[in-house]
Amino acid sequence: MEAFYILHSEGEVLIERQFKSTKNRAIVLDFMVEYSKSKAVVDQTSESAAPMIKIEDAYCFYTRSLDCIYLVITKVDYAPVSIFEIIYRVIKSLKYTFKHPNSELIKDNFTSILEMIDEALDAGLPFTNDEVVLDTIIKPHDFMNKMSDLLTGKPSLEKSQQIENHVSSLLSSDEPWRTPGGKYTTNECYIDVIEYMTATIDKDGSLYNAIVNGEFQVRCQLSGDPSLVLKGTFPTDFLHYSMHKCGLIRRKRFEEEKVLSFTPPNATFVLMSYTADPTGCTLPFNVYPIVSVQTKGAKFSLKLEKKPVTGKKVILEELRVEIRFPLDVEDVVLTSTHGKFIMNERSNSGTWKLGTLPNEGPVELSGDITAKNTTTMQDHGIFCNFLFQNAGTSWTGTKVDKLEVRGVKYNPYKGARCLARTSSVELHL
Predict the structure, then answer these.
(1) What's the CA angle centered on 279, arms 242 and 353, to 5 degrees?
(2) Most C-beta atoms within 10 A of its C-beta, which of 4, 246, 294, 346?
(3) Mean pLDDT score across all residues of the chain
């Protein structure tokens, strides 16, 4: 890549690192002009902005976070996924340290952020992307070092030397993801098994073309050098899976015994992500849709009724139905027996917010739809997207059965839970 920039949303350059050319400033000016044009279009049409803008022979990959724009300029054929991986890794490190890294915080910590970028990128190529190492570099100075920087005009040499030595020890360690000798007042480890399902349902409410993406999210604060052993129930057939580097070095044990063994980082991280087929999975409610096309529109009815799933108690939360109508629809008048329906005439879509479902009896959203052309309405149809989450269960049956903490003398607090969510479950009427 040619250069890495952090810009204010109005165009001010906050951080600049040139790798191959000093002529990229002119590209940044042209980029801000094109960015402003695309932003105006997005604000008017509610469409998504393109993540890349081409300026002459340069490709500008960018994303926005708070009031800052993170920009990478390249003039060669480079994998966009790798570029965005670098951008989001920088943003993640900034958020980990500063929580809300706005333009003012970036200005105040200019030196450490620039050092972090130099460590992450060497001559425009990825060099060090370990989160622990980057977080160590970017940690803000304490009050005394800030005063020293202000009075002398240069960073504290002692502090810089400490950071350099600490980074060197991490890079030379067999486990660079974990800071050695960590101490915590409360020793605890929490694991969340979160699964997202994407599927299509027919008019009878049966699932097909279903696929599940899941991950083990770990939040760990354990003193010393613990070793964790996780025994659980996993999908019988993974379509794909990947692991954090702490689990990857003991991958063979997982493949042979279905046991995850790892030394955790002192942070929140994703231990494992996977894609699986949710065989035998069903929705926690029945769906009864009716669309009766008439001369000037249609009669619409959508009923939902809660049902038990595999004999377990279902905790249905955050349920809503997003409904997209054809563009030639002129008016939509729908009323609900439970929850609230909100219509967005600008996008010809509506949201039925239910929260949860009553234990007994169906709930219904019904009313009239007026359209210019009923033939077009029949051709395009109505799309319903069901979004919700089930607490205490997972789509594939994945769960944590036992978590052992070895190599330490204390008894830490351990907790695990499951959460099944939907990213897109569509019904076409």
Answers:
(1) 90
(2) 4
(3) 79
